[in-house]
Design brief:
By secondary structure, the protein is α/β, with parallel strands linked by helices. The chain has a single domain, classed as 5'-nuclease (Rossmann fold, 3-Layer(aba) Sandwich). Strands 3-2-1-4-5 form a five-stranded parallel beta sheet. The longest helix is centred in the middle third of the chain and has 19 residues.
Amino acid sequence: MRKVIVDTYAILSAATDTLTPNAMNCMLEIKTGKARGYIHYLIFYEVMYHWRRGRLPAFTTEEEIITYLTQSFQDIRLDDRIASEASNVKVFGDKMLADNVLLHSRRLSACDATTIVLGKILQIPIVSGDEDLKYVGEQFGVKVIW
């Protein structure tokens, strides 16, 4: 079974019908059980934050969005080793972004750094259209589907 980490960007895009065909195919495979989608608590946090800010109008109640996240995706538990490695990815990722003419003003979030580390450790791709995550993830050898 295909396994992918689904980033906040992909979940928001799915809710607003702005997925690319490749990302839409991944999300459809997760929905139909042909693939397994994973998230971690920082992705959960970011999705809930965006919902509370009114950016996910398809979900009307907190219970509805929590049910969607917990039933659609499996949770990856984080530990000290993952957090430590994510801080390393953030430091080097910020340097990579600073050296890129198009991305020099951007910074890698803690959530994106954690997602990249998990993709690397688990050796599974990440579904995301986030430019920072895509650029740094690919530099660390993690496949990003968008």
